[in-house]
Amino acid sequence: MSTQRWRLPPRPGEVIDRSAPIRFTWRGRPYSGYAGDTIASALAASGVRMFSRSLKYHRPRGLLTASYHDPGVLVQVGPEPNVRGGHRLAEDGMDVRPQNVWPNLRFDVKAANRLVGRFLSPGFYYKTFMRPRRLWPAYEHVLQRFAPGGSVPDAPPPAYYDKRYAHPDVVVAGGGPAGMAAAVAAAQAGARVLLVEEEHALGGHLRWGGDADRGALANLVAAVGATDGIEVLTDSVVTGRYDGNWLAILERSRRTGPGPTATGDSGAGSLPAERLIKARAGTLVVAAGLIERPYVFAGNDLPGVLLSTGARRLLNLYAVRPGERAVVLTANADGDAAAADLAAAGVEVARVLDARRGHGLVRARGRNRVQAVDCSDGRTVECDLLVTATGWTAPTSLLNMAGDRPVFDPRANRFFADLERLGPDVLVAGGLAGDGTVAELVEHARAVGREAARRVAEARRRRSTSDATVPPPPDGAPEPVPALGRDEHPPMFTAATHGMVDFAEDVSSKDLVSAVAEGYDSAELAKRYTTATMGPTQGKLELVNTVAVLAAATDRSIAVTGTTTWRPPYAPVTLGALAGRRFEPVRHSPLQPWHEAHGARPLVAGTWIRPDHYGDPVSEVRTVRERVGLIDVTPIGKLDLYGPDVPKLLNLVYTNKWSRLEIGRVRYGVMCAEDGVVLDDGVTGRLGEHRYLMSTTSSGAETVEEWLQNWLQLEHTDWQVAVTPVTTAYASMNLAGPHAREVLRRVVDDVDLDPEAFPYLRVRTGSVAGVAGCVLWRIGFTGELSYELHVPAGFGLAVWEALLAAGRDFGIGVFGVEAQRILRLEKGHLIVGQDTDGLTTAASLGMDWVVKLDKDDFAGKPELAWRQQHDGQLRLVALQPVDGSLTPPEASQILEGHSIVGRVTSSRWSPTLGRSIGLALVAPHLATPGTEVTVHLPDGRDVPAVVQPAHAHVDPEGVRLRE
Amino acid sequence: MLLLPCPWCGPRNDSEFRYVGEARRRPDPAHTSIQDWRAYLYDRANPCGWVTEHWFHRSGCRRFVTFERHTLTHELRSGDARSITFGRPGGTSPGAQTSWRADEPGERDRTEPWNGEGGGA
Fold first, then answer.
1. Residue A626 CB: number of other CB atoms within 10 A?
2. How many CA atoms lie within 13 A of A545 on its CB side?
C-alpha cells in the first residue's frame, strides 16, 4: 500500500473527506485516497507522477491541468476505456490502469518511436503507408498495435442510460461565479432555470481561490440554493447547441436510485448512469469561463510541468503537494497566486519568472520528469516542478454553434465573443465576455440573467397574449447589459524553443512549422494534415497555440489566421447516452401465445414477430396443396376507406381501373410512386355503398396510409374520403386448400359459401364461429381455394381454434411464412420489396394487364407510359433451372458473357413440382419464354435456366383458386 | 432541431415530422410531356431564401402541413392554410360531413379528425 506522503494537512477549501478513506489499485498495486479525490489527485497524493505515454512518440506524460481536460490521464477503469482521470472520482475497489503502454508504463518499447521520429512527421499516415498498395494489410496490422486508447469491453457496460426532455426558460452553461449569478437573477425574474456545471460542484475558479474567493463562493452557492426555480446539474455538460436553441446536455455519472435498473437488478443504487437531456431553451447564457493555455517550449510535456490552475486545484481542492522545489512562470494574477499558494503549502519556490517584467524560460530539462529549467537569462534552476501561467483559451464552442465568430483581441491576447453577432436567444457572461473582479463579473452576470429572463417572457407573450400563467416581464424594455473591461495580457504563446502544442495528438510546434513549409498554411488545412486539435482535448488546450504557431510561421497576425471551427460535441458523449434506454417495440398478433405453444419458429419481419414455420415448411406446403391449411396473416396492412369519393382515390393510387367495383367485389391492384416505381400491392374490397377495406403489404401499411393522406390532404382536399388504419383491429387468417370451403362451412352460417353465391374475388361480411363483424375475402395468394378472414382482434384466438377443430377430420394443419412463400412462388405471385426494388417500375412486372394507360390519371402514369414505349427495362419472369435439383440462392446474378443482365429475386425448391423454381428480373431481350439464361452461383459455377411462359409454375390457368 | 409551428399541435420538434419537400404543382398527366413530368419529379428550386414546403406530422396529428421556411436563417411561418381545410370543401361546416355517412345506419361512432378549428394557421 502506497502511503499518501504528498498529502498536505487539512486545507480550508479542500473537497476530500478525510473520514472516508478509499482503496483502489493502479497498475495492479494497492493505492489509497479519500472520498472526493479524483483518480489523478489520489495517485498524485501517493507520489505518482507519470500517468500515460503519449500517442505517437510514447513520451511519458504526467498531470497538466488536473481537470477533465487533462490529456495525460486518460485511463482504463475496469472494463471502461478512456476515463478522464483528472475528473472521475476515485472509488473503493476501482481497478485503474494506464493506456497506450506496452508492455508497461515504465518500460515502453514503443518509446523507440522517439528515436524514429522522422518517420512520424506530420502527415506520416498519408505518406508512409500508401505504397506499395499490396502491403497495406501488413501496415494495417502494425498500425492497429500502435493505436492509442484503452481496450473496449466485449460485454455491454454495467451502466444505465436514459434520456429526458426539458423545456427550461433559461439554460446557463457553466456554474462559476458568473453562471451562478446569472441563474439566480434569471430565476428571481420568474424564469425556470437549468444551471449546468461540468465539475462535481458549483464554483468554477472560486473553488481553488483564496479566502475572499471562498467567501464569495459560499454566498453564491447559498443564493442558488435559496432561489426557487433553479435546477442544478453538476458533472454535466452542454455538449451542443442546435437550431432553435435546442441543447444536448449530458448528465454524467448519475447514480441510479433504488428500484429496477436496466439490467433488472433492484436497489443497488450504485449503477453508473448517464442521461442525455434534450433541452429546448428559451435563452442560453454561455458562462463557460476560461481554460488555461499551456506554454510552448522544449520539454513542456515532461511530468512535473503543470498549469497554474492545475497546481492550485491539486493544492487547494485535494491538499496534494505537486512537488518539492518549484519554478513558476507567471504572466498574470493567477500565476502569482499559484506561486503564493505553493510557498504557503511548504513547496520551495526556487524562482518566479515574471513575464510582465521580461523574464522567460527556454526549456525544461529532465528524463521522464522535470529536473531543471533553463531560464532566458542563462541561469539554470534545478527543480521538480514547473508551473506556467501564460494566458487563456476562450471555450467559445457553444457560441460558434450559435453562429458567432469570436474575435481575437491583441491587447488581451485572447478571443472574445462577438456580442454584435449573437442572436437574441444567446447571451454571454463571465470570462468569455470580459474581465473584472469577482464582484464586477457577478454584477454583469446578474444583468445578463435578468435580460435572459426578460427575453423569454417577451417571446412567450408574443406567442400567446392570452396565456395567464405567463408571469409579466420584470421590465418592459430591454435592460442594457453593462460592458465588462478587458485586462491587458502579454502575448505568451511560444518560447524560443519548439515544444508540444497538442499534447493529446503529440503535435509539436516544429510539426506545425513543417506543415506550413509543405504548403498547409491555413488553420483548417494544417489542422487536418497534422491532426492538431483533433484529439481528445478538441482544441480546448491547444487551439490558440496552434493558431499562434501558424501565424508566426506564415508571418500573419493571430486575428488574420483565425481559428478552426468548433463543432459539437463540446465534450465526449458515450454511445450509450446517445442510444438511451433499450427500446425496440415489437408487434405480435393476438395469436402469438398459440404459435409459441405450438412450436413456431419466430421470424422477425419489420416490427412484427411472426411464425416462420412450425418445424417442417415443406410438409406445411403439402398440407395446403392436398388438404387444407391455416395461416396467421394479421400483419397484412388494412385500411378502412369510407366516403363517396373512394373510387376516385383508388383510381388515382392504383394503376388499374376501380370506377365500377361493385359491392361485394375484391380486386388486386399495384400502387406506384410518381416515378413509376412499385410502391405496394394488395387487394381492396367494397363492403358497402361507401365502405371499402384495403389491404397492403405487411411492411407497407404505414407508407400506404401516408401516401393516401398525401393525396387527400395536399392534392384533392375536396374529396370526401376517411382513411382509418385498422391493421391491428383485426386478427387475420387465411384458410387455404381444396377442403377450405368444407371447413369454413362448419363455422359460418350467415354467409352463403356456394361457389356460385361466393365466387373468387368476392368479399362478404358475416359471422365466423359465432363472432360477428368478420370480413371474408375469397382470394388466393397461395394459388389454392382460400378464404381470408378478418376477425375482430379480441376474438382471433377463438376463431382460429374453432377453424382448427372444424378441420380436424380433413387433416387441417397450420402453416407459416416460409410455406406461404413457397406456395405463392409456385403460383408466381410477386412480393413487393423482394421481387421488386427501388428501381423496379410497374412496366417491369410483366403484368401489363394491371397497368391501364387509358385512364386519365394515376400516380406515375406519364413515367409508365414513357417506359412502355421505350423498352429497356428489366422484366420479371418465372425461371426454372435446367437441373431441377439446383436451387440458386436469391440475388444470384444472371450473366451474359461478362455482363450482368439480371438477377434471381425469389428461389425455392417446390415440393409440388419436385424441382427448383424462381422469379427473376432479366433484360428484356431475355424475357421471351423458352430463353435459356445463365445463372451465376456463389460457388462460381454457371448453370442454365429457362424462362417460363407464365409467372405461375403451378396451375397457370388458375383453376384451383376458382374452384 | 427546428421547432415547427404545427397549426394543429403548436410548436413541435422537427423529429416528429417527415419532410415531404418543396411545394410544387403537379402537371396534368393527360397533357404533360415527359420532360415536364421529370422536372416535376426531380427538379427543385432550392432557393437561398423563402421556400414553401410540406411536412407530414407523423408522430403528431398526422396531418400534412405547409410552412414557409427561410433556408438561410431557418425562420419559419405557417404557410398556405390549404392543408387544414381537409374535410371542409368550400367552407362546408363540419356538421355537413355526416350527410354522406348516414347511409349505413349502425356504423360505429368515429371521432371526426376535422372537428373544430384546431388552432388555425
1. 14
2. 34
**Nearest residue on chain A to B89, judged by CA atoms?**
A718
Alpha-carbon gap, residue A805 to A746, rounded angstroms? 10
Residue that wins the pLDDT comparison between A115 and A891: A891
Can you list the positions of beta strands (E) in A39-153?
52-53, 60-61, 74-77, 80-84, 95-98
**Nearest CA-CA partner of A291 in A97, A71, A111, A92:** A71
- What's the rounded Cα separation, in Å, for the pair A894 and A902? 5
Extract the C-alpha cell encoding A497.
524553443
Question: Exposed (0-12), middle (13-18) or buried (19+): which is A809, by Cβ within 10 Å?
Answer: exposed
Contact A555, A544 (CB under 8 A): no
Q: How many other CB atoms are there within 10 angstroms of residue A929's CB atom? A: 11
12-51 in B: which are within 8 Å (CB) of A? 13, 18, 20, 26-30, 32, 34, 37-38, 40-41
User: Beta-carbon neighbour count of residue B28 at 10 Å?
Assistant: 11
Dist. CA B47–CA A605, nearest whole Å: 41
pTM: 0.85
**Rounded-to-integer distance, Cα A45 and Cα B15, Å:** 49
Q: For residue A882, which of A821, A924, A942, A950 has the smallest C-alpha distance?
A: A942
Identify the helix (H) or strand (E) that includes residue A910. strand A899-910
Cell reading at B14: 422537427
pLDDT of residue B107: 37
Q: What are the DSSP calls for A155-166, one per residue?
A: SPPS-EEEEEEE
Contacts with A688 from chain B: Cβ below 8 Å: 104
Average pLDDT value over all residues in chain A: 91
Neighbours of A372 (CB within 10 A): 18
B6 SS3 class: strand
pLDDT at residue A66, as a whole number? 97
For residue A691, the model assigns a pLDDT of: 97
Beta bridge partners of A171: A194, A284
Q: Cβ(A941)–Cβ(A881) under 8 Å?
A: no
Q: Is the ipTM of this complex over 0.95?
A: no
Q: Which residue has the cell 479525490?
A: A37
Q: How far apart (Å, rounded) are the C-alpha atoms in residues A610 and A601?
A: 8
Residues of A with Cβ-Cβ distance to B83 under 8 angstroms: 713-714, 717
Which stretches of chain A sit within 8 Å of chain B by CB? Answer: 242-244, 246, 278, 280, 642-644, 674-675, 688-691, 706, 709-710, 712-715, 717-718, 720, 722, 724, 856-858, 861-863, 866
Which whole-number Å values give the CA distances from A800 to A20, A601, A734, in the listed order?
66, 19, 10
